[in-house]
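Please review this one:
***
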Amino acid sequence: MKIYQNRSQLLEQLNQICIQTLKEKPRLIVALTGLCGSGKSTLGKTIRKKGFGNFAPYQIAVIDDNVMSLNLFIVRPKIRNTPPSTQSKI
């Protein structure tokens, strides 16, 4: 039961952040990351069907198609170890 309360508080805090940000900007993009099986897709499906906080489903676009599926542990060493001759100069 305690985990659900923490999740509920987290979602309410995210709702408040979204409301505040949308007062200043016309759009907001929220990205979810986490381990496999942590509930990212389930949360996306729930938001798509029921909405989120003060936002109705028609006000939200949920993209869940594995487009950004990338192992960052493979990419990071390549970025970190780029030879100096290929790095762009500022």
Remarks:
- The chain has three helices and no strands.
